[in-house]
Amino acid sequence: MANYNLGWSTGHPGLLIYLVDLSGSMRWDEKINRVSKTISDALFATVAPSQLKDGSFLNNFEVRVIGYNQKTYDIFSGNVEQIADRLNDVGDFFFEFGENSPYKPQGLTHMAMAFEKVGDVVSQWISRQNAAGRPTPAPMVLHITDGFPEEKDTPDALAEEHARKAAARLLDMVVPDGKLLLFNMHIDGKPGATEPMYFPTSAPSDKRRKLLFDISSPMEEIFVQRGGELRNAKPQKGSRFMVSNVSNNNILAELIRFGSSVSSRGAGPRETPIDI
């Protein structure tokens, strides 16, 4: 099996999924505002290199934005041209989160249901790529949450077990380029309240952090090397795609940009847009 050698291109576009916690606590401390803004900024940075001199775009990846609480929400689905159009329309915030929006934070954190939804989306995408005869880069899933699994009328331990099983099924999804990549990002709203953790190499003792560590993808050497470009949080050999208690806006933005593009390059020749 190859190890993430297939870069994104129009002949084999990638899949990037943002899975966003929309439980009630995400409205505190401007957390959902920060997430929406940083997703917008990350997508702008990821789309920009795909623009050609004539203003058109290389459709070399697709994006899905999925929200969840006690339901799942298909917030956005599209290729590079459609992403660029939406960025032009929405400005700073990629999805709405106001009181009259279907995406406002409310309810509980049904994490298992969210992972199952992502599994369905990835399976359908892989089937479409196979039907078109396209090689398939490993999908990247960025899961952004401030909480722990919660399910209505369900003990916390059982909700955690459901989340672990659903995440394990995701982590077992594989294409010839490699296994699906699951990057779990736990955010906090109060700077300094809890020490942040970036790309740990062993399971923490804290219950929340241990869960996220256990259900996050290991970082292959190619991703550890690319993480060396980060200014504030560098992975090392044995790291997992997991961070916790991120409250600094600049670091959050850097981590989301990293997760949005780290799997796009591959190790072989890539399409190169015309310089503009």
Approximately how much helix is present in the residues?
25-40%
How much of the sequence lies in strands comes to 15-25%
Number of strands: 9
Gyration radius, in Å: 18 Å
The pLDDT mean sits at 92
Q: Helical element count?
A: 7
- State the low-pLDDT regions, or none: none
Note the main attributes of this structure.
single chain; alpha/beta; two-stranded antiparallel sheet; 276 residues
Summarize the structure.
The protein has 276 residues and is an alpha/beta fold. It contains 7 helices and 9 strands, in the order E-H-E-E-H-H-E-H-E-E-E-E-H-H-E-H. Helix 1 crosses helix 2, helix 1 packs across helix 7 and helix 3 runs parallel beside helix 4.
Task: Explain the overall architecture.
The protein is of the alpha/beta class. It is about 35% helix and about 15% strand. Helix 1 (about 30-45) crosses helix 2, helix 1 packs across helix 7 (about 250-260) and helix 3 (about 110-130) packs parallel to helix 4.
Strands, helices and their partners?
Elements lengths: L13 E8 L9 H17 L13 E8 L3 E8 H11 L20 H21 L8 E6 L10 H16 L2 E2 L2 E2 L1 E7 L9 E2 L8 H8 L6 H7 L14 E5 L2 H13 L15
Parallel strand pairs: 1-2, 1-4, 4-7, 7-9
Antiparallel strand pairs: 2-3, 5-6, 8-9
